[in-house]
């Protein structure tokens, strides 16, 4: 079973950048599609971005497309989310998630497809 731990969250001014990291242990990440979700206070958890097992395919929500970039380093068992041009509405707890999957190209975007989750990291964007 893979275990995930996020880091890199914090407080940043609008227009700033943060890079979130997701460290995996227990299993090699190359068998897993990876994704980032977020949950703001009083709102449901929402999809942010996903990346296929070997990184050839990515997907983004419309709200972050062009500002966020997902990546992975299977050799280091890491996944990342580079967040640029941050807005106050990006404020949320960000979670990384992993899905053990056969397809090398799939980028699942539904949280129910991801059985493995980290504990989350808080991102706060001030106006």
In short:
This protein has 127 residues and is an all-beta fold.
Description:
The protein is mainly beta and 127 residues long. Helices cover 0% and strands 50% of the residues. It is globular, with a radius of gyration of 13 Å. The chain starts with a strand and ends with a strand.
Spatial shape:
globular
Bin the strand percentage: over 45%
> Total strand count, please?
11
What is Rg? 13 Å
Mean pLDDT: 97
Topology:
Layout: E1 3-7, E2 10-13, E3 18-25, E4 32-39, E5 46-51, E6 58-60, E7 68-73, E8 78-83, E9 92-100, E10 116-117, E11 121-126
Parallel strand pairs: 2-11
Antiparallel strand pairs: 1-3, 3-8, 4-5, 4-9, 5-6, 7-8, 9-10, 9-11
Protein traits:
mainly beta; globular; seven-stranded mixed beta sheet; 127 residues; 0% helix; four-stranded antiparallel beta sheet
């Amino acid at each position: 079973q893979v275990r995930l731990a996020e880091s890199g969250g914090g407080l940043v001014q609008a227009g700033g950048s943060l890079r979130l990291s997701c460290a995996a242990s227990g299993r090699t990440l190359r068998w897993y599609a990876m994704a980032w979700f977020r949950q703001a206070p009083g709102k449901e958890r929402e999809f942010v971005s996903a990346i296929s097992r070997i990184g050839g395919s990515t997907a983004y929500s419309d709200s972050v497309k062009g500002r966020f970039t997902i990546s992975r380093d299977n050799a280091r068992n890491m996944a990342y989310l580079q967040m640029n041009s941050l807005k106050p509405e990006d404020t949320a707890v960000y979670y990384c998630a992993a899905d053990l999957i056969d397809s090398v190209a799939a980028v699942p975007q539904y949280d129910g497809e991801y059985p493995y989750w980290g504990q989350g990291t808080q991102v706060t964007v001030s106006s």
